[in-house]
Amino acid sequence: MKNTLDSHRTVFVISIWTEKTTGKQLAWRGSIRTIDGHRMSFCTLTDLNQLLCELSGWLDSPTKSIEDIRS
Length: 71
Prior knowledge:
By secondary structure, this protein is of the alpha+beta class. It has helices spanning about 45-55, 65-70, and strands at about 10-20, 25-35, 40.
C-alpha cells in the first residue's frame, strides 16, 4: 500500500556556494537537483524560490512571516 504522505512529498538536493567576482567580491550561486536527475542553477533567493514553486507546485503565501512558520 502506498503511503499517502509520500504522494505529496517532493525531494530536492540544493547546493549553495560563493564565487569570487570582479573586484574580489563574493557572489552566491546555487543549484537544485531533482531525484530524477534534472539540475537547474540559480543566483538569487528569488530565483531559488521560483524554482521550488515551479517544481513542487507550492503556492507561496506572502502573508506568513518566518515567526508564523516556526510556531
